[in-house]
TrEMBL record:
One of its GO terms (cellular component) is extracellular region. Residues 587-683 form the Subtilisin-like protease fibronectin type-III domain. The keyword Transport does not apply. This is Subtilisin-like protease SBT1.4. Residues 1-30 form the signal peptide. Belongs to the peptidase S8 family. It is found in: Secreted. Residues 380-469 form the PA domain. Residues 47-126 form the Inhibitor I9 domain. InterPro entries: PA_dom_sf, PA_domain, Peptidase_S8/S53_dom, Peptidase_S8/S53_dom_sf, Peptidase_S8_Asp-AS, Peptidase_S8_subtilisin-rel, Peptidases_S8_3, S8pro/Inhibitor_I9. Pfam families: fn3_6, Inhibitor_I9, PA, Peptidase_S8.
Length: 686
């Protein structure tokens, strides 16, 4: 079987082989069998994303002929009515191409047609998310939030699983009408859209073809889209709480901004054709910002249609922010790592909804839970480890796994993982008669715990705490524990910290670009304005910025070794890299440095003064261990606003500093009397 075929094709082929071998074993002995299977595979319809050369659009008539241009690539033998079904989407703004239902043979025939560039089977992209504003230094009465008018007049497009329009975060009270440039529409009833929720559309043609999804409004089925949209631009909702915890005013990062919702996900996976259609519509509708919390493992940028579409959005002045992914803590697990996308990792905040596990020996370990019953006694109860029988399914408290274990009236320790949802583990404990649960992290989860709405008294503790609790259980014949509920606690001095699940770099497609760009609250919360941990107030008055224009990416892309055609897919125009001044990836004017260090390397950066006209900056550095860093010049003098100055940084190995690890990190800062402009440094030793 050829690589890259969809799972359903692999399953179909396997079942076909089993059927034939079982009922007609003699057929499998000749070449006729393999030939028939290959023919069946090639004749199966599946959705392809097809890139074609751009049609010149100098006139309105030519723009209207775009769909006809795309249809011209469809098989000639099919009827017009069949073509209607075969063409899934004709894209206008973010890629030059279309999505269509095709067979492998039809795609092969299409490759010989003038104007064809590439075609690939559609991918299914997985979804990747109250006190956060205060933690980020955002205050309603003063500062950056107020100075920015709380996002007033900004249109944020959210590509996700839809929205619940009745949610109080989407009230239009006190919000002015959207700007005149807005061209979108609302597929809910007129009364459900307002000046906050100005648009809501559903793109499900791809899902209909591959998953049998029927036409439906952009209603949120699982809460993910409502969560991301309300975090981005939810209105002020007073007296909010979760099961009596985290009381206060719930609000998004841009509470006066407008929201345009594009439902492109139907269940946990999002058909790529629908995602591109939503992105295409967002650009057409006139959004200012696009927020995407879905994605796939990294591939070269020209094969990543979110990267391709985001490049087009960036060319039109639209800011695109994407989740880094939830595949941590392992290296090189990022999604959405193109440098023209703001790639956002997840961090903790300083609020916990705390519950402690107090052991019979007096040791106490803090954890988290949303369910904080006031009537649960703080007395010691028998403590048992669910994995005491040696069965892996019992250790993770899988369904039915505790039937033969005496847990009645006891505190049950369950391991996280095993494909079992955290709350479902508590359900198994409760069904088996357990009184309470201690949920213990796996090693890869580290110290990242979550406050869940458990179905019984519980606390979720770290991996390190779990090891000590297990050691205590093994040290005595009568282990006991109590759960002590402490409610909402603010002021964790160790925050922010990277969450265990947040995807890590280095970047796969371009290791010379440091990703994620920034981190923002993503554990029990999420932020829209998300370099380092996000600091909105300082970002509003940075002093210096690192500007990159769309055309600046062309030499960078050529420097990655992409062909003219591959760069053209991203640039949305013909490119000849032989006529471009190709640059190494580390030379892109990025506000950070990611260096694979062998021989000494020198990179240049250009900063633009957006602070006081007459200002000077001096460089300081925290040098990565095992590295020498030299900056030239070490002072920058500006005499006007928007003036640009260039500096260079040389990185070399310092062998006298002793043995170093595989990675090292540091940063350099340009410091004036008012501003401090930092650039992270990441070193990977060759």
């Amino acid at each position: 079987m050829k690589s890259g075929l969809p799972l359903k094709m692999a399953i179909f082929r396997f079942l076909t082989i089993v059927f034939i071998l079982y009922f007609s074993p003699e057929i499998a002995q000749g070449s006729q069998f393999s030939s028939s299977i290959e023919t069946t595979e090639k004749s199966m319809l599946q959705t392809y994303i097809v890139h074609v050369k751009q049609l010149e659009r100098s006139t309105t008539a030519q723009q209207e002929n775009l769909e006809s241009w795309h249809r011209s690539f469809l098989p000639v033998a099919t009827a017009t009515s069949d073509n209607q079904e075969r063409l899934v989407y004709s894209y206008k703004n973010v890629i030059s191409g279309f999505a269509a239902r095709l067979t492998e043979e039809e795609v092969r025939a299409m490759e010989n047609m003038d104007g064809f560039i590439s075609a690939s089977p559609e991918k299914m992209l997985p979804l990747l998310t109250t006190h956060s504003p205060d933690f980020l230094g955002l205050h309603q009465e003063m500062g950056f939030w107020k100075e920015s008018n709380f996002g007033k007049g900004v249109i944020i497009g959210v590509l996700d699983s839809g929205v619940l329009p009745s949610h109080p975060s989407f009230s239009g009270e006190g919000i002015p009408p959207p700007p005149a440039k807005w061209k979108g529409s609302c597929e809910f009833m007129a009364s459900e859209c307002n000046n906050k929720l100005i648009g809501a559309r559903s793109f499900n043609v791809g899902a209909k073809a591959t998953k049998g999804v029927t036409a439906e409004p952009p209603l949120d089925d699982d809460g993910h889209g409502t969560h991301t949209a309300s975090t981005a631009a939810g209105a002020f909702v007073k007296n909010a709480d979760v099961l009596g915890n985290a009381k206060g005013t719930a609000v998004g990062m841009a509470p006066y901004a407008h929201l345009a919702i594009y439902k492109v996900c139907f269940g946990p996976d999002c058909p790529e054709s629908d995602v591109i259609a939503g992105l295409d519509a967002a650009v057409e509708d006139g959004v200012d910002v696009i927020s995407i919390s879905l994605g796939d493992p990294a591939v070269p940028f020209f094969q990543d249609n979110i990267a391709v579409g985001s490049f087009a959005a960036m060319q039109k002045g639209i800011f695109v922010s994407c989740s880094a992914g939830n595949s941590g803590p392992f290296n090189t697990t990022l999604s959405n790592e193109a440098p023209w996308i703001l790639t956002v990792g997840a961090s903790s905040i300083d609020r916990t909804i705390k519950a402690a596990a107090k052991l019979g020996n007096g040791e106490q370990f803090d954890g988290e839970t949303l369910f904080q019953p006031s009537d649960f006694p703080a007395t010691q109860l028998p403590l048992v480890y669910a994995g005491m029988n040696g069965k892996p399914e019992s250790a993770v408290c899988g369904e039915g796994s505790l039937k033969n274990i005496d847990v009645k009236g006891k505190v049950v320790l369950c391991d996280r993982g095993g494909g079992i949802a955290r709350i479902d583990k508590g359900t198994e404990v409760k069904n088996a008669g357990g009184a309470a649960m201690i949920l213990v992290n796996q090693e890869s989860d580290g110290f990242s715990t979550l406050a869940d709405a458990h179905v019984l008294p519980a606390t979720h503790v770290s991996y390190a705490a779990g090891l000590k609790i297990k050691a205590y259980i093994n040290s005595t014949a009568t282990p006991t524990a109590a759960i002590l509920f402490k409610g909402t606690v603010i002021g964790n001095p160790l925050s922010p910290a990277i969450t265990s699940f947040s995807s890590r770099g280095p970047s796969f497609a371009s290791p010379g670009i440091l990703k994620p760009d920034i981190i923002g609250p993503g554990l029990c919360s999420r932020a829209l304005i998300r370099i380092g941990h996000v600091n909105p107030s300082r970002a509003n008055d940075p002093g210096l910025v690192y500007d990159i224009e769309p055309d600046d990416y062309i030499p960078y892309l050529c420097g990655l070794g992409y062909t003219d055609t591959e760069v053209g897919i991203l640039a949305h125009r013909s490119i000849k890299c032989s006529e471009e001044s190709s640059i190494p990836e580390g030379e892109l004017n990025y506000p950070s440095f990611s260096v694979a260090l062998g021989p000494p390397q020198t990179f240049t950066r250009t900063v633009t003064n957006v602070g006081e006209a007459y200002s000077s900056y001096t460089v300081t550095a925290i040098v990565p261990q095992g590295v020498d860093v030299s900056v030239n010049p070490d002072k920058l003098y500006f005499s006007k606003v928007n003036q640009k100055l260039t500096y260079s940084v040389t990185f070399s190995h310092n062998s006298s500093s002793g043995k170093s690890s595989k990675f090292a990190q540091g940063y350099l800062k340009w410091v004036s009397g008012k501003h401090s402009v930092g650039s992270p440094i990441s070193i990977m030793f060759k």
